[in-house]
Amino acid sequence: MRSSEILSKEVQDELIEFTRNLVRTKSFSGQEGEVIRLIERKMLALGFDEVKIDAMGNVLGRIGYGAKAILFDSHVDTVEVNDEENWKYPPFDGEIAEGYLHGRGSVDMKSGAAASIYAAVLSRQHGFCEGKSVYVSCTVFEEDCDGENLKHLFKEFNLKPDYVIVCEPSNNVITLGHKGKAQISIKTQGLSAHGSAPEKGVNAIYEMAEIIQRVERTNLELMKKEGQRGTMVMSRISSVSASINAIPTECEVYLDRRMVPGETQEDIRREMEQIVAGKNAAWEIGVLTRKSWKGMEIRYEPFHLAWKIDPEHELTRACITAYQDTFGKEPTGFDYWDFSTNAVTPVSMGIPTIGFGPGEHKLAHMRDERCKVSQIIEACNFYTHVIKEI
Questions:
Q1: Closest Cα partner for 363 from 84, 8, 102?
Q2: Is residue 117 a part of any domain in this protein?
Q3: Comparing C-alpha atoms, which of 323, 297, 295 is closest to residue 389?
Q4: Neighbours of 159 (CB within 10 A)
Q5: How are the residues of the chain apportioned to helix, strand and coil, as percentages rounded to the nearest 5?
Q6: Which end of the chain is more exposed for a tag (fewer CB within 10 A), N or C?
Q7: Is the dihedral of CA 323, 329, 330, 332 positive or negative?
Q8: 273 sits in which H/E element
Q9: At CA 378, angle to CA 13 and CA 333, rounded to 5?
Q10: How far is the C-alpha of 64 from the C-alpha of 88, rounded, in Å?
Q11: 156 shares its domain with 214
């Protein structure tokens, strides 16, 4: 079945209008309540068999009662907009122009969310749900705390799907995995003294200076490696001092380390020990704390290994067949994301997981974010065929 056979023109229009409404609804991380309620109402109106919201504020819908469980996940929080006046099209108008849906969240990742919601409904209409339960999760606070949302949702609802499709933007290319992530804090300690007598103190910033150089050298060495390469970026620096004219007693930097398949937790530990060696410094995973729109305290430890599903896995094969059904041709290749996603949770549980979603990920978080309207329809068609094939 081609897109026109799976989605009538009326359904296509309805899908795009719903996606526009999602974009029109602001949902910065921690402020997703309105969009979650909008999705809840839409799922109920479309006839989902069950719709519920967990204590964190994620919404989960289900169609079907079968033993085989398939989950489509999309986060619906977005990064903020601080330059609205500079956008070509207003970021919260849901404008369609030049074949694109424009606005914050159009790529990352409300288009994937809408496509998966409609795919679940269409799969039942076309008789693809027999023996299956199709779940669609629309999750919160992914931008800061990827995976924590699904971790809580799975636990509260006692859910462990057989398969997970992450609907992050991939330009509608089947994506087999993504890099790992470690976000690390390094602190150096000094000794306070008056700025007029620096010889009486120990400057924590100077203690950090060589560490900064080591971080840069480490990244350069990583970049020299053949094939897939990890990276290490220093993203933040701060210091503590008694006053503006005092020697700092503490300096802290925050590192973002991206890992490739084969790199282990022990590799990162050894790397960090070498970076702080000989300095009055200590490192640790940079734990984040946040509060969800429902008031739940979130504690996030950002350390996730890289992952990749086997190209011959039954889920991959189902996606290849779904791709053929959708586009009328074999996929020319697969993608592998540089960024981290909610996939870290199902992967850590041993659940087969794969990625596919509308939009170019390079446009995410950017001014003039936009997603091709045709890709939203194609993604919905693809998801429907995945349900059929699994």
A1: 102
A2: yes
A3: 323
A4: 16
A5: 35, 25, 40
A6: N
A7: negative
A8: helix 265-276
A9: 165
A10: 42
A11: no
Which one-letter amino acid corresponds to residue 32? E
Cβ distance 120 to 63 under 8 Å? yes
Q: Would residue 370 be called left, alpha or beta, if left means φ above 0 and alpha means ψ between -120 and 50 degrees?
A: beta
| Domain CATH code at residue 125 | 3.40.630.10
- Stretch 16-32: mean pLDDT: 98
Please check whether residues 46 and 124 belong to one and the same domain.
yes
Q: Is the pTM for the entire model greater than 0.85?
A: yes
* Beta-bridge partner residues of 304: 181
pLDDT given for residue 388 in this prediction: 97
Tens of pLDDT along 45-98?
Answer: 999 999 999 999 999 999 999 999 999 999 999 999 999 999 999 999 999 999
212 torsion bin: left (phi>0), alpha (psi -120 to 50), beta (else): alpha
Contact 347, 353 (CB under 8 A): yes
Provide the residue range defining the domain that includes 252.
Answer: 180-291
Asked if residue 20 belongs to a domain, the reply is yes
Q: Are 84 and 179 in contact (CB under 8 A)?
A: no
Domain closes at, from 291, 322, 347:
291
Q: What is the CATH number of the domain that holds 235?
A: 3.30.70.360
